[in-house]
Every structure is written in C-alpha cells, then in structure tokens.
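Hey, resending since the last one bounced:
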Amino acid sequence: MGVSMSKVTVSGHPGSGTSTLVDGLTQHFGWNSINGGEIFRREAENRSLTLAEFGVLCTKDESVDRELDKTLQQYIADNETNIIESRLAGWWAFKMKTKCVRIWLSVSEATRADRVSKREDIALDIAQENNAARLLLDNERYQNMYGILPDDPTPYTHIIDATNISAQEVLEQAIMIMEEF
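The structure tokens again:
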C-alpha cells in the first residue's frame, strides 16, 4: 500500500518522542524534515541562553516566538518539506487548512521526565521540574499569543499514546496512519 499524502506534522511535549518518530519517518519514506525544537534550541544557543531562559525571553518578547512560528509556517506551506516537527506544527497546519496528517504524541509526565533525564544526563527530579516549568511557560505563552494550548486535540488527525510502547511501535503506528490516510 502506497502513501499519497506526503506532508505530516508531528507534535508533542518535550520528551514525548517526536524527534525519534521524525527520524524514523524520514528514514522509512526517504522524506525530508524540519525540527522546530532544533530551531528553538539553536536560537537559544545563539543568544547564549538556556532553554528555560529562552522560554522566558519568548514570554516577554512575542516577536521572537512569532518569527520562529513564521519560519515553521513557511515549511508547512512549501512543497519540499514533508515532515514538520514542533509543538505547534499541527495547529499551524490546521489553521492554514493544509491537507496533511497531524499527529500528536501523548506521553505521561513521568515517562517524559524519565526520557529527558536520560537524554540530557540530569537527575529525574530536575527533569520533572524543568519539564513542568517549561510546560507552564509555554502553555501560558501560546494561550496569551494565540489562544491555543498545544495538547488540545482539536487540530490533530491522530493521537498516539506513546507512554507504554516502544519507539518502533510508535513508528509502525505512524506508518500505518500515513498509509491509511
């Protein structure tokens, strides 16, 4: 069975496995992708800020966020980028009426903290605190700027609960979604 839809957004909170899923989809389909988290992290690094500090800056200066979001919207609208990963990619595609699959990866807070702890080589309690602080800041920012919450299911065509399944199983579900869509 082939895939006629060649554009997909992948969204989820930090530690939900979006980057891993995007890597798998990119390899499986031979598609290209853009990672919104990497754009965000690169901009924080360019400004010599931690992710938390950069999140605070974005809260105080909406123009920073709006510029990053414009960049993502350009990738969603182009005819070259197949996979767009970011917390708001599904929302932008929905609002732009882009015909595509919009996936949200749902993962428990405990599992996300465990993954972030391992990825960033930090203590689990620090990862939990960082995740909670970032989620609070981001949700407040997105609510104030756009009137949306990333995990509101409204824009997503599919939600995958990735809490208790492997990265391979998440990828297999996403491939099935793409083949059926």
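The first helix runs from residue 18 to 29.

Sorry for the duplicate.
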